[in-house]
Amino acid sequence: MTQFIKDAQWRYATKKFDASKKVSAEDLAIIKEAIRLSASSYGLQPYKVFIIENPEIRALLQPASWGQSQIVDASQVIVFANMTQFGDADIDAYIQNMAQTRSIPVEAIQGYADFMKSKITSLADDVKSNWTAKQTYLALGNLMNVAAELKIDVTPMEGFEADQYNKILGLTEKGLNAAVVATIGYRHEEDATQHYAKVRKSNEELFINL
């Protein structure tokens, strides 16, 4: 059995965090790097990631999170916010970054830029926002996997009111939308769910070979 599978078996959606335990700066840096290295469509990373430690902000977010205690008890709250108006300027910035990183002229990859623009910028706003929101889940997956390796607990959360998050964090005026949330920290010894057997579909039910 690989270490990855052992880590996957170890992790669970933590219901109660130990508020006295904090993720170290070193481990948080590893988590951030794992998020930064996440795959995304075209490599564009059309989102921002908010790492929230401020207790006053978290107290405001808790009612917008169906009152869940993880929001205030976890070490950090991580909000993945997708870009709602992704357009030509964002693609141009990516191309400039690519040219600089790979030491190639912009002109050499302008065709790729034009191709991306032809596929993305003409999309309807709701379709484009849905596409950028999907990209955040790829980054969330990397967060969950590296955290399990570090034996840091994570609760991925869709149980929140995005419009309230957008208002509290000032996301709308930034062209952003709260897509998915993750709380990170360390499980409380009183969290009974850590002892539950993991329930998943069998291979026969889940996979289809064609």
Describe the structure.
The longest helix is centred in the middle third of the chain and has 25 residues, at 125-149. The model has no long low-confidence stretch (mean pLDDT 97). The protein is of the alpha+beta class and 210 residues long. It is globular, with a radius of gyration of 19 Å. It has helices at 3-10, 25-36, 55-61, 70-73, 88-102, 110-120, 125-149, 162-169, 203-206, and strands at residues 47-52, 76-83, 153-157, 176-185. Helix 2 (25-36) packs across helix 7 and helix 5 packs antiparallel against helix 6 (110-120). It is 45% helix and 14% strand. A four-stranded antiparallel sheet has the order 1-2-4-3, with helices on both faces. The chain contains nine helices and four strands.
Q: How much strand?
A: 5-15%
Q: Indicate the structural class.
A: alpha+beta
Radius of gyration: 19 Å
How much helical structure, as a percent, in the residues? 40-55%
SSE pattern, N- to C-terminal: HHEHHEHHHEHEH
* Strand numbers in spatial order across the main sheet: 1-2-4-3
Question: In a few lines, what is going on in this structure?
Answer:
With 210 residues, the chain is an alpha+beta fold.
